[in-house]
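subagent[fold] <- orchestrator: predict structure for attached chain, return tokens only, no commentary.
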Amino acid sequence: MEITQLIKAEMVNAVEHLYKHSIKENDVLLNATRKEFEGDYTVVVFPFTKIARKAPPAVAEELGNYLVDNVELVEGFNIIKGFLNLSISGAYWAKFLLQIAAQEDYGSLAANGEKVVIEYSSPNTNKPLHLGHIRNNLLGWSMSKMLEKAGFDVKRVQIINDRGIHICKSMLAWKKFGNGETPESSGMKGDHLVGKYYVLYNNEEKKQKEALKAAGKENEEAAILQEARQMLLKWEENDPEVRDMWNMMNGWVFSGFNETYERLGVSFDKLYYESNTYLLGKNAIEQGLKKEIFYKKDDGSVWIDLEDAKLDQKLVLRSDGTSVYMTQDIGTAQERYSDYKMDKSIYVVGDEQDYHFKVLFEILKRLGESYAEGLYHLSYGMVELPEGKMKSREGTVVDADDLMTQVVQIAKEESLERGDVSDLSEEKQQEIWRRIGMAALKYHMIRVSPRKTMIFDPKESVDIQGQSGPFIQYSCVRVNSVLKKAGEWDADMLQYTTPEEQEKNLLVMLQRYSHVVEEGVKNYDPSLIANYAYELSKSFNKFYHDINILKSPDGETKAFRLVLTKVVGRTLESALDLLGIQVPERM
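subagent[fold] -> orchestrator:
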């Protein structure tokens, strides 16, 4: 339990004992003591004066004496008007440090028996992964790691959007303009090649629309779009030629995606495919029609009326019988519950889909799905460029593969300028540069609260100074260097009971770790871990500069500081692991 929670709990006991009055922990106002006063934590006693029917200084005196006499962690107090300044005993901190030093997986919470399925990435197979997908994957991966740390049984999944009109657009463009081009003949990754034809399709459709407008036929549909719609119908009718082309091009894309996921350091326990789940969704809609949950219009399209839930009316099947995203999402949710019987299901999807998920969750409730109450949309803001939104159909996206290559290259260039790892083998140098570059990218993406829109500036994203992943990595490397130089030491520091201010600051921060993990899970916000790791790194570096660890005045003090250093390093590495960041051997 965090020390502030401990103090509040003891204050509840003190008020109960002294004044025979029950209060809650939230009624206790507690802050860190201001630097100009003696003490570690300050309790505001004014709220208790009516209960005690005494002046604030008298109440503070009684509470202070009770805590010193009955609570091991409080060794003294002083009073400034209606404020009770408490001094925490060094023995408490020494005992706390010993406890967490003995825990290899400090910060982890006990298994709670709850199963969570988290969905992230979930791309379309008509284009490669881009900057927005990077944010999605990193948020999903970090959230899954935090959930595991907090005691949940986690399954990582994604739904591959491998069918639909967008997929047919890429296929049609390749059929028209591709001349049999393949990843092997072009030297391009498969997902990049298919994305090239998605852009070609949209350029051609735009050209045809402009021609129609010039001819005064702006209300007519472009011929190439009509062809794409026909291709989608043929796909749903299992046309052999269309299906063969679809399998071939999707295979190219899947191979490309897997390369990107491996570089990004994310993985999945199971993949779901829209080409399978949309049929399950159609079946659910048929059952819902019988129960009058859905209704059919004169043109044959199927809808649901959610106006009573302030969600308007929503299409779930087109008039030609083809499905929409909602159709496959209904089917996917049902299949997922059949697979995992999860208590909670988290969808990591951009905030542009907020309405979609409100509708999906409401539909599943009306279908009587038992898992509907455990659904959550982890909504996050889009990633935009300084000049505005990215547009895949126009090819104005920041490619995920290119971005990862760029940040690693910058890490390499800066390392070569410093010459810090020039004595290592080429293979080890490459691994160090990879870890530094990826840390810069990952931390930059995760440090911002998910709900905020990000403006992505390539130069800022690879800054390895200040609040960055490499700064935290450097703190870990510094810890390892100190411990290596120390060699063997006597870890018995039970007699050391006078930690200095910098040491207390670190201990207070270390005590917060499991609480930060809990808060991150509760708020679905990995940025809390990212910011915690940065603050702990700053505190450690100040401690390192202000206090000479290896030249401590005696063995007990040195041992205490070395154990403290070791635990800080372990905690930083644990926090970085939750963000998907690895620590390099050197920097």
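orchestrator: received. Logging for downstream: The longest strand covers residues 153-160. The chain has three domains: 3-88, 120-394, 401-578.
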